[in-house]
Design a protein that fits this description.
single chain, about 400 residues, mainly beta, Immunoglobulin-like, 4 domains, seven-stranded mixed beta sheet, 3 helices
Amino acid sequence: MNTTLRLSLRYLPTYGCLVCMALLLLAPTMAQAAPNITAMPRMANISPGTQSPVQLMYTVLESIPNTSYIATSTQGEFSTPSGDPLGTVQRTVSINVVNSRGVGTELLVVPARVIAAAMKADVGQIIFTRTFDPSRADIPEGTLETTLQIVPSPAGEFAIIGLRLEFNQPAPGDAPRPHSGERITVPRNTKGLRAAAIITYNGHGMLRGRWVADGQILGFVTKQLLPGMREAIIASPAVPAFPTYATGLHSVRFEILDPPPAFDLPSIQYFVTAEERIPNLPAVTLQAPPDRDHLPLSSESPPVFSWNPAHTDATYLFRLFTLEPEAMTRPLIELDTSAPVLSARTGRNYYMLSLFDLGKLVTNSPHAWQVQALVDGRPVAASEYRVVIFSGAASELELTVPLRDQGVSGK
Protein backbone atom coordinates (compact mmCIF):
# COMPACT_ATOMS: atom_id res chain seq x y z
CA MET A 1 0.00 0.00 0.00
CA ASN A 2 2.81 2.29 0.80
CA THR A 3 4.42 1.44 -2.52
CA THR A 4 1.20 2.16 -4.38
CA LEU A 5 0.87 5.43 -2.59
CA ARG A 6 4.39 6.39 -3.42
CA LEU A 7 3.78 5.57 -7.08
CA SER A 8 0.69 7.73 -7.11
CA LEU A 9 2.50 10.62 -5.56
CA ARG A 10 5.39 10.11 -7.91
CA TYR A 11 3.36 10.21 -11.13
CA LEU A 12 0.72 12.77 -10.07
CA PRO A 13 3.07 15.78 -10.55
CA THR A 14 4.03 14.43 -13.95
CA TYR A 15 0.38 14.11 -14.99
CA GLY A 16 -0.34 17.62 -13.72
CA CYS A 17 2.54 19.06 -15.70
CA LEU A 18 1.24 17.42 -18.86
CA VAL A 19 -2.17 19.04 -18.34
CA CYS A 20 -0.58 22.41 -17.72
CA MET A 21 1.58 22.11 -20.80
CA ALA A 22 -1.46 21.21 -22.91
CA LEU A 23 -3.34 24.24 -21.64
CA LEU A 24 -0.37 26.47 -22.35
CA LEU A 25 -0.13 25.11 -25.90
CA LEU A 26 -3.86 25.58 -26.52
CA ALA A 27 -4.06 29.09 -25.06
CA PRO A 28 -2.23 30.88 -27.93
CA THR A 29 -4.31 28.96 -30.45
CA MET A 30 -7.53 30.08 -28.75
CA ALA A 31 -6.34 33.69 -28.54
CA GLN A 32 -5.19 33.78 -32.15
CA ALA A 33 -8.38 32.33 -33.70
CA ALA A 34 -9.34 34.44 -36.73
CA PRO A 35 -12.36 36.70 -36.12
CA ASN A 36 -15.67 35.53 -37.53
CA ILE A 37 -16.19 38.27 -40.14
CA THR A 38 -18.86 38.04 -42.85
CA ALA A 39 -20.16 40.21 -45.69
CA MET A 40 -23.78 40.66 -46.69
CA PRO A 41 -24.87 40.03 -49.32
CA ARG A 42 -22.54 37.16 -50.15
CA MET A 43 -23.46 37.56 -53.83
CA ALA A 44 -24.63 40.67 -55.74
CA ASN A 45 -25.44 41.52 -59.36
CA ILE A 46 -23.53 44.11 -61.38
CA SER A 47 -24.05 45.36 -64.93
CA PRO A 48 -21.54 45.97 -67.75
CA GLY A 49 -20.99 49.41 -69.23
CA THR A 50 -21.56 51.30 -65.97
CA GLN A 51 -19.91 51.90 -62.61
CA SER A 52 -22.11 49.53 -60.62
CA PRO A 53 -22.61 50.39 -56.91
CA VAL A 54 -23.19 47.59 -54.39
CA GLN A 55 -24.11 48.20 -50.74
CA LEU A 56 -22.15 45.83 -48.46
CA MET A 57 -22.42 45.28 -44.71
CA TYR A 58 -19.56 43.68 -42.75
CA THR A 59 -20.20 41.94 -39.42
CA VAL A 60 -17.62 40.78 -36.84
CA LEU A 61 -18.51 38.22 -34.14
CA GLU A 62 -15.55 37.36 -31.87
CA SER A 63 -15.43 34.04 -30.00
CA ILE A 64 -13.45 35.66 -27.17
CA PRO A 65 -15.85 37.57 -24.88
CA ASN A 66 -15.45 41.24 -24.01
CA THR A 67 -13.03 41.90 -26.87
CA SER A 68 -12.76 45.41 -28.30
CA TYR A 69 -10.60 46.72 -31.13
CA ILE A 70 -10.76 48.39 -34.57
CA ALA A 71 -10.38 46.28 -37.72
CA THR A 72 -9.19 48.24 -40.76
CA SER A 73 -8.94 47.41 -44.46
CA THR A 74 -7.11 49.94 -46.64
CA GLN A 75 -8.04 48.47 -50.02
CA GLY A 76 -10.23 45.89 -51.74
CA GLU A 77 -9.18 43.60 -54.56
CA PHE A 78 -11.07 42.37 -57.64
CA SER A 79 -10.14 39.04 -59.20
CA THR A 80 -11.52 36.27 -61.37
CA PRO A 81 -12.79 33.07 -59.70
CA SER A 82 -9.45 31.49 -60.63
CA GLY A 83 -7.52 34.25 -58.82
CA ASP A 84 -6.34 36.42 -61.72
CA PRO A 85 -6.25 40.09 -60.57
CA LEU A 86 -8.64 42.55 -62.20
CA GLY A 87 -7.99 45.69 -60.17
CA THR A 88 -8.23 47.31 -56.76
CA VAL A 89 -10.30 49.92 -54.97
CA GLN A 90 -8.30 52.29 -52.76
CA ARG A 91 -10.81 53.02 -50.02
CA THR A 92 -10.35 52.45 -46.28
CA VAL A 93 -13.13 50.68 -44.36
CA SER A 94 -13.03 50.37 -40.56
CA ILE A 95 -15.09 48.20 -38.20
CA ASN A 96 -15.32 49.24 -34.56
CA VAL A 97 -15.58 46.03 -32.53
CA VAL A 98 -17.03 46.54 -29.03
CA ASN A 99 -17.67 43.63 -26.65
CA SER A 100 -16.85 41.12 -29.40
CA ARG A 101 -19.30 42.58 -31.92
CA GLY A 102 -18.90 45.12 -34.72
CA VAL A 103 -20.61 46.27 -37.92
CA GLY A 104 -19.26 48.28 -40.87
CA THR A 105 -20.70 49.30 -44.23
CA GLU A 106 -19.31 50.10 -47.66
CA LEU A 107 -20.88 51.43 -50.83
CA LEU A 108 -18.69 49.51 -53.24
CA VAL A 109 -18.46 51.02 -56.72
CA VAL A 110 -17.27 48.44 -59.22
CA PRO A 111 -15.44 50.33 -61.99
CA ALA A 112 -16.66 49.73 -65.54
CA ARG A 113 -13.10 48.84 -66.57
CA VAL A 114 -13.02 46.00 -64.02
CA ILE A 115 -16.27 44.57 -65.40
CA ALA A 116 -14.94 44.94 -68.95
CA ALA A 117 -11.72 43.13 -67.99
CA ALA A 118 -13.72 40.25 -66.50
CA MET A 119 -15.84 39.95 -69.63
CA LYS A 120 -12.70 40.04 -71.77
CA ALA A 121 -11.37 37.14 -69.67
CA ASP A 122 -14.64 35.33 -70.49
CA VAL A 123 -15.80 35.01 -66.88
CA GLY A 124 -19.23 35.86 -65.57
CA GLN A 125 -18.21 36.49 -61.97
CA ILE A 126 -15.85 38.81 -60.08
CA ILE A 127 -14.52 38.01 -56.61
CA PHE A 128 -14.15 41.04 -54.33
CA THR A 129 -11.82 40.47 -51.37
CA ARG A 130 -11.01 42.56 -48.30
CA THR A 131 -8.54 41.78 -45.52
CA PHE A 132 -9.16 43.47 -42.16
CA ASP A 133 -6.20 44.10 -39.84
CA PRO A 134 -7.18 44.37 -36.12
CA SER A 135 -5.58 47.06 -33.98
CA ARG A 136 -4.68 44.40 -31.37
CA ALA A 137 -1.56 42.34 -32.00
CA ASP A 138 -3.03 39.18 -30.41
CA ILE A 139 -5.85 38.98 -32.98
CA PRO A 140 -5.00 37.79 -36.50
CA GLU A 141 -6.24 39.27 -39.77
CA GLY A 142 -9.67 38.40 -41.14
CA THR A 143 -10.39 37.96 -44.86
CA LEU A 144 -13.77 37.85 -46.57
CA GLU A 145 -15.04 37.50 -50.13
CA THR A 146 -18.09 38.74 -52.04
CA THR A 147 -19.12 37.26 -55.40
CA LEU A 148 -20.24 39.79 -58.01
CA GLN A 149 -22.38 38.27 -60.78
CA ILE A 150 -22.29 40.08 -64.16
CA VAL A 151 -25.85 40.37 -65.50
CA PRO A 152 -27.69 42.62 -68.03
CA SER A 153 -28.76 46.05 -66.74
CA PRO A 154 -32.49 45.22 -66.14
CA ALA A 155 -31.46 42.29 -63.92
CA GLY A 156 -28.82 44.25 -62.00
CA GLU A 157 -29.05 45.43 -58.42
CA PHE A 158 -31.26 48.48 -58.01
CA ALA A 159 -28.85 51.40 -58.11
CA ILE A 160 -28.76 55.01 -59.29
CA ILE A 161 -25.87 55.37 -61.73
CA GLY A 162 -26.47 58.87 -63.13
CA LEU A 163 -28.30 62.16 -62.45
CA ARG A 164 -28.64 65.21 -64.68
CA LEU A 165 -30.53 68.41 -63.79
CA GLU A 166 -32.04 70.88 -66.25
CA PHE A 167 -34.38 73.82 -66.05
CA ASN A 168 -37.43 73.31 -68.24
CA GLN A 169 -38.24 76.97 -68.70
CA PRO A 170 -36.06 79.07 -71.03
CA ALA A 171 -34.57 82.37 -70.02
CA PRO A 172 -36.38 85.57 -71.10
CA GLY A 173 -35.78 86.36 -74.74
CA ASP A 174 -34.30 83.79 -77.07
CA ALA A 175 -31.53 82.49 -74.81
CA PRO A 176 -30.90 78.75 -75.20
CA ARG A 177 -32.06 76.35 -72.52
CA PRO A 178 -29.07 75.68 -70.21
CA HIS A 179 -27.66 72.23 -69.53
CA SER A 180 -26.82 70.79 -66.10
CA GLY A 181 -24.33 72.90 -64.17
CA GLU A 182 -25.00 76.11 -66.13
CA ARG A 183 -27.12 79.07 -65.09
CA ILE A 184 -30.43 80.52 -66.15
CA THR A 185 -31.33 84.19 -65.64
CA VAL A 186 -34.87 85.30 -64.82
CA PRO A 187 -36.43 88.62 -63.76
CA ARG A 188 -37.49 89.14 -60.19
CA ASN A 189 -40.87 87.56 -59.24
CA THR A 190 -40.85 85.21 -62.24
CA LYS A 191 -43.62 82.62 -61.89
CA GLY A 192 -43.41 78.93 -62.69
CA LEU A 193 -39.66 78.40 -62.81
CA ARG A 194 -39.16 74.62 -62.59
CA ALA A 195 -36.54 71.98 -63.26
CA ALA A 196 -36.34 68.28 -64.07
CA ALA A 197 -34.11 65.48 -62.79
CA ILE A 198 -33.12 62.92 -65.43
CA ILE A 199 -32.17 59.75 -63.54
CA THR A 200 -30.33 56.75 -64.99
CA TYR A 201 -30.60 53.50 -63.04
CA ASN A 202 -30.09 49.73 -63.03
CA GLY A 203 -32.65 47.16 -61.93
CA HIS A 204 -35.86 48.40 -60.37
CA GLY A 205 -37.13 49.58 -57.01
CA MET A 206 -38.46 52.50 -55.00
CA LEU A 207 -36.71 55.86 -55.32
CA ARG A 208 -36.90 58.39 -52.49
CA GLY A 209 -35.63 61.92 -52.94
CA ARG A 210 -36.35 65.58 -52.35
CA TRP A 211 -36.07 68.91 -54.17
CA VAL A 212 -33.97 71.53 -52.38
CA ALA A 213 -33.54 75.21 -53.27
CA ASP A 214 -31.00 77.30 -51.37
CA GLY A 215 -30.88 74.63 -48.67
CA GLN A 216 -34.67 74.68 -48.14
CA ILE A 217 -36.70 71.53 -48.85
CA LEU A 218 -39.44 72.21 -51.42
CA GLY A 219 -40.93 68.73 -51.57
CA PHE A 220 -40.33 64.98 -51.24
CA VAL A 221 -40.53 62.45 -54.07
CA THR A 222 -41.37 58.74 -53.86
CA LYS A 223 -41.40 56.96 -57.22
CA GLN A 224 -41.35 53.33 -58.30
CA LEU A 225 -38.70 52.90 -61.01
CA LEU A 226 -39.75 50.12 -63.36
CA PRO A 227 -37.46 47.39 -64.76
CA GLY A 228 -36.22 47.67 -68.32
CA MET A 229 -36.62 51.46 -68.54
CA ARG A 230 -33.08 52.64 -67.54
CA GLU A 231 -34.18 56.30 -67.30
CA ALA A 232 -36.76 58.32 -65.37
CA ILE A 233 -37.64 62.02 -65.43
CA ILE A 234 -38.85 63.71 -62.23
CA ALA A 235 -40.13 67.29 -62.35
CA SER A 236 -39.76 69.74 -59.50
CA PRO A 237 -42.99 70.69 -57.69
CA ALA A 238 -45.16 73.40 -59.20
CA VAL A 239 -46.13 74.52 -55.70
CA PRO A 240 -44.02 75.72 -54.10
CA ALA A 241 -41.96 76.78 -57.11
CA PHE A 242 -38.38 77.99 -56.95
CA PRO A 243 -38.27 81.37 -55.15
CA THR A 244 -37.57 84.38 -57.38
CA TYR A 245 -38.40 87.25 -55.00
CA ALA A 246 -34.77 87.74 -53.90
CA THR A 247 -32.21 88.96 -56.40
CA GLY A 248 -28.90 87.14 -56.77
CA LEU A 249 -27.67 83.60 -57.35
CA HIS A 250 -29.74 80.60 -56.23
CA SER A 251 -28.92 76.89 -56.17
CA VAL A 252 -31.18 73.90 -56.95
CA ARG A 253 -30.53 70.24 -56.05
CA PHE A 254 -32.37 66.96 -56.26
CA GLU A 255 -31.13 64.92 -53.31
CA ILE A 256 -31.47 61.14 -53.64
CA LEU A 257 -32.15 59.60 -50.24
CA ASP A 258 -32.60 55.95 -51.24
CA PRO A 259 -30.95 54.05 -52.78
CA PRO A 260 -27.80 56.02 -51.87
CA PRO A 261 -25.91 57.10 -55.02
CA ALA A 262 -22.22 56.37 -55.41
CA PHE A 263 -21.43 59.81 -56.83
CA ASP A 264 -21.60 63.45 -55.79
CA LEU A 265 -25.00 64.97 -56.51
CA PRO A 266 -24.97 67.84 -59.03
CA SER A 267 -26.63 71.22 -58.65
CA ILE A 268 -27.81 73.89 -61.08
CA GLN A 269 -28.14 77.61 -60.54
CA TYR A 270 -30.43 80.45 -61.55
CA PHE A 271 -29.80 84.16 -61.24
CA VAL A 272 -32.61 86.57 -60.35
CA THR A 273 -32.15 90.07 -61.75
CA ALA A 274 -33.48 93.26 -60.19
CA GLU A 275 -35.59 93.86 -63.31
CA GLU A 276 -39.16 92.91 -62.49
CA ARG A 277 -41.94 91.59 -64.68
CA ILE A 278 -44.87 93.91 -65.30
CA PRO A 279 -47.18 93.46 -62.29
CA ASN A 280 -50.65 91.97 -62.66
CA LEU A 281 -49.81 90.67 -66.13
CA PRO A 282 -51.49 87.30 -66.69
CA ALA A 283 -49.66 84.46 -68.33
CA VAL A 284 -50.19 83.70 -72.00
CA THR A 285 -52.73 80.87 -72.20
CA LEU A 286 -52.83 78.82 -75.37
CA GLN A 287 -56.21 78.04 -76.94
CA ALA A 288 -55.88 75.95 -80.10
CA PRO A 289 -54.76 73.54 -81.36
CA PRO A 290 -54.68 71.27 -78.28
CA ASP A 291 -51.51 69.51 -77.19
CA ARG A 292 -50.47 66.46 -79.28
CA ASP A 293 -52.95 67.35 -82.01
CA HIS A 294 -52.52 66.29 -85.66
CA LEU A 295 -52.87 69.13 -88.19
CA PRO A 296 -53.16 68.69 -91.98
CA LEU A 297 -50.87 70.96 -93.98
CA SER A 298 -52.92 72.64 -96.68
CA SER A 299 -52.64 76.05 -98.28
CA GLU A 300 -56.41 76.03 -98.84
CA SER A 301 -57.05 75.67 -95.11
CA PRO A 302 -53.81 76.59 -93.32
CA PRO A 303 -53.46 75.79 -89.59
CA VAL A 304 -54.33 78.59 -87.16
CA PHE A 305 -52.74 78.94 -83.70
CA SER A 306 -54.57 81.02 -81.08
CA TRP A 307 -54.14 82.18 -77.48
CA ASN A 308 -55.77 84.43 -74.89
CA PRO A 309 -54.68 88.10 -74.87
CA ALA A 310 -52.19 88.90 -72.08
CA HIS A 311 -52.16 92.72 -72.05
CA THR A 312 -53.72 95.56 -74.02
CA ASP A 313 -50.32 96.95 -75.03
CA ALA A 314 -48.72 93.60 -75.81
CA THR A 315 -47.54 92.20 -79.11
CA TYR A 316 -46.83 88.52 -79.48
CA LEU A 317 -43.93 86.43 -80.68
CA PHE A 318 -45.11 83.12 -82.16
CA ARG A 319 -42.41 80.45 -82.44
CA LEU A 320 -42.36 76.91 -83.84
CA PHE A 321 -39.61 74.32 -83.21
CA THR A 322 -38.80 71.00 -84.86
CA LEU A 323 -38.58 68.08 -82.42
CA GLU A 324 -37.14 64.60 -82.43
CA PRO A 325 -39.69 61.73 -82.63
CA GLU A 326 -38.96 60.79 -78.99
CA ALA A 327 -40.57 64.06 -77.89
CA MET A 328 -44.00 62.48 -78.31
CA THR A 329 -43.42 60.31 -75.25
CA ARG A 330 -41.22 62.55 -73.09
CA PRO A 331 -41.52 65.98 -71.44
CA LEU A 332 -40.02 68.92 -73.31
CA ILE A 333 -36.79 69.04 -71.30
CA GLU A 334 -34.10 69.36 -73.96
CA LEU A 335 -35.78 71.82 -76.32
CA ASP A 336 -33.26 74.14 -78.00
CA THR A 337 -35.02 77.51 -78.10
CA SER A 338 -32.16 79.21 -79.93
CA ALA A 339 -33.13 77.90 -83.38
CA PRO A 340 -36.88 78.01 -84.10
CA VAL A 341 -37.93 76.80 -87.54
CA LEU A 342 -40.47 79.63 -87.60
CA SER A 343 -40.64 82.95 -85.70
CA ALA A 344 -43.20 85.69 -86.33
CA ARG A 345 -44.60 88.74 -84.52
CA THR A 346 -48.24 89.74 -84.49
CA GLY A 347 -50.45 92.25 -82.76
CA ARG A 348 -53.35 89.79 -82.59
CA ASN A 349 -54.00 86.75 -80.43
CA TYR A 350 -53.69 84.25 -83.29
CA TYR A 351 -51.34 83.34 -86.10
CA MET A 352 -52.20 81.62 -89.38
CA LEU A 353 -49.40 79.79 -91.19
CA SER A 354 -48.54 81.33 -94.56
CA LEU A 355 -47.57 79.54 -97.74
CA PHE A 356 -43.93 80.36 -97.01
CA ASP A 357 -44.29 78.89 -93.52
CA LEU A 358 -45.66 75.62 -94.88
CA GLY A 359 -42.53 75.06 -96.91
CA LYS A 360 -40.37 75.11 -93.77
CA LEU A 361 -42.25 72.36 -91.94
CA VAL A 362 -41.63 68.61 -91.93
CA THR A 363 -44.64 66.36 -92.27
CA ASN A 364 -45.28 63.43 -89.94
CA SER A 365 -42.82 64.89 -87.45
CA PRO A 366 -43.56 66.55 -84.09
CA HIS A 367 -43.19 70.31 -83.64
CA ALA A 368 -43.50 72.48 -80.52
CA TRP A 369 -45.13 75.91 -80.52
CA GLN A 370 -45.03 78.68 -77.94
CA VAL A 371 -46.07 82.32 -77.63
CA GLN A 372 -44.34 85.17 -75.78
CA ALA A 373 -45.98 88.47 -74.86
CA LEU A 374 -43.83 91.55 -75.56
CA VAL A 375 -44.20 95.04 -74.12
CA ASP A 376 -41.86 97.68 -75.55
CA GLY A 377 -40.00 94.91 -77.33
CA ARG A 378 -39.05 92.87 -74.26
CA PRO A 379 -40.63 89.58 -73.10
CA VAL A 380 -42.94 89.97 -70.13
CA ALA A 381 -44.86 86.68 -70.21
CA ALA A 382 -44.72 83.36 -72.00
CA SER A 383 -46.98 80.40 -72.58
CA GLU A 384 -46.29 76.72 -72.11
CA TYR A 385 -45.03 74.59 -74.99
CA ARG A 386 -47.45 72.41 -76.94
CA VAL A 387 -46.69 69.66 -79.42
CA VAL A 388 -48.36 69.30 -82.82
CA ILE A 389 -47.82 66.87 -85.70
CA PHE A 390 -48.28 68.05 -89.29
CA SER A 391 -49.55 65.67 -91.95
CA GLY A 392 -50.02 65.97 -95.71
CA ALA A 393 -48.21 68.45 -97.92
CA ALA A 394 -48.86 72.06 -98.84
CA SER A 395 -50.18 72.68 -102.37
CA GLU A 396 -48.81 75.34 -104.65
CA LEU A 397 -52.01 77.38 -104.40
CA GLU A 398 -51.79 80.82 -102.82
CA LEU A 399 -53.48 81.48 -99.53
CA THR A 400 -56.95 82.96 -99.63
CA VAL A 401 -56.05 85.28 -96.74
CA PRO A 402 -53.31 87.79 -97.68
CA LEU A 403 -50.42 88.02 -95.26
CA ARG A 404 -51.06 91.72 -94.58
CA ASP A 405 -54.56 90.90 -93.26
CA GLN A 406 -53.05 89.00 -90.36
CA GLY A 407 -51.10 92.01 -89.10
CA VAL A 408 -47.93 89.89 -88.80
CA SER A 409 -44.33 89.99 -89.83
CA GLY A 410 -42.41 86.73 -90.13
CA LYS A 411 -38.93 85.55 -90.72
